[in-house]
Amino acid sequence: MPLFIVALGIIVLLILITGFKLNTFVSLIIVSFGVALALGMPLDKIVATIEGGLGGTLGHIALIFGLGAMLGKLIADAGGAQRIAMTLIEKFGEKRIQWAVMVASFIVGIALFFEVGVVLLIPIVFTIAKQLKVSIVYLGIPMAAALLATHGFLPPHPGPTAIAGEYGADIGMVLLYGIIVAIPTVIIAGPLYTKLAKKIVPSAFKKTGNINSLGEQKTFKLEETPGFGISVLTSMFPVILMSMATIINMIQTSSGMKDNTFFSVVRFLGSASPAMIVSLVLAFYTMGIARKIPVKTIMDSCAVSISHIGMMLLIIGGGGAFKQVLIDGGVGSYVADIFKGSHMSPLILAWIVAAILRVSLGSATVAALSTAGLVIPLLGQYDVNLALVVLATGAGSSICSHVNDAGFWMIKEYFGLSMKETFGTWTVLSTITSVVGLALILLLSLVV
């Protein structure tokens, strides 16, 4: 019954948005209240759940999202994004530009949360699409595929990192196997799927994207832009800080060195929010002060970037409210009961449970963590590689991103897609990532 209520709620949500043309945020809140009532939640708990879900989601990403939008806007307004775009076009050529975007997104995605990676890469992808006069979706699919695969398979992302700890798996092995699985997965879900997506939703490839979400875009002569090196350094600085922190932390763990002030500072600076604020301060200098741009102009760029993501933040928060209703309404517990006492292979079971929870709850991280609690009791019965169980859980938690997932709304709003086009591109892409990932994990289990 809970799964039927969830399905009915999603259908109503689609009707409100596409049929009645109701604002997406308003639709999400209305459906959240309706589903909460249908699930039998106490009346005095419903408002707290919706407020908690909205606040919890925005509390996790609003600071990172806002700082990332400012950083991306500063790089774009200074001409750094255009310099990166033109250099990539020159080096890779127009025919291979999808692969350039995919490689760059994979590197960025290793250390950055999905949301941060999207915010940082979107200005560059928009600029390349504009320069080459191609659809934003043509470049957006390989970008999204790379970011999703790294989010689902690779530490230090929250899902893989947390469930590796729950399963007792070696994080280094999870990272190694994760890269082996992620690379072919990204190629299939990215550049290769783009060819099929053009046939499924051809209208999506006629879109220029919601460029207004980034504010007015400036164009420059190449000699007026910052150098390629400093532009890449500024764009990648959050990645550098987080990667360094991850590597140093792994060295400390493997060598058994005691914790001290140095390690504490490195961990602090390598966390997402501090890394973003340090990178933004660097951008103030490299993209502004060093180029003799007045501080007021720099701050105006920051203000414009925030003003254009206000509604998007509300929509993402609305998705978080819907997700929390499903969790507090007992949908997760209901799914857990279905699989109680199962003797299925841990790899397949972990994938199936994570997939159902992902579709029901929306959050990949919540789905992954909830799955760990169900699968752990089975691990003692099988001789299975724990790192592969982590990856199978991550693969399941990546499947079928739809209306209760913040990532769905980010892709829809940034690329200016309709609901149908978002399902035909992003939702199918996330499903391919999940299924191909599982197939590769099962193949890998035969040799490791």
How would you explain this protein's 3D organization?
The protein is mostly helical and 448 residues long. Helices cover 77% and strands 0% of the residues. The protein is built from 20 helices and no strands. Helix 10 packs across helix 11 and helix 16 runs parallel beside helix 18. The longest helix has 36 residues. The chain is globular. The mean pLDDT is 84.
Count of individual beta strands: 0
Report the helical percentage.
Answer: over 70%
The helix/strand order is: HHHHHHHHHHHHHHHHHHHH
What fraction strand? under 5%
On the 0 to 100 scale, the average pLDDT is 84
Concise structural overview:
The protein is mainly alpha-helical. 77% of the residues lie in helices and 0% in strands. The mean pLDDT is 84.
Write the layout of secondary structure elements.
Blueprint: H1 2-19, H2 24-38, H3 43-78, H4 80-92, H5 97-111, H6 114-132, H7 136-153, H8 158-167, H9 171-200, H10 228-255, H11 261-269, H12 272-286, H13 295-307, H14 310-328, H15 331-338, H16 346-361, H17 364-379, H18 386-396, H19 406-415, H20 419-444
Helix pairs in contact: 1-2, 2-3, 2-14, 3-6, 3-12, 3-13, 3-14, 4-6, 4-10, 5-6, 5-7, 5-10, 6-7, 7-9, 7-18, 7-20, 8-17, 8-18, 9-18, 9-20, 10-11, 10-12, 14-19, 15-16, 16-17, 16-18, 16-20, 17-18, 18-20
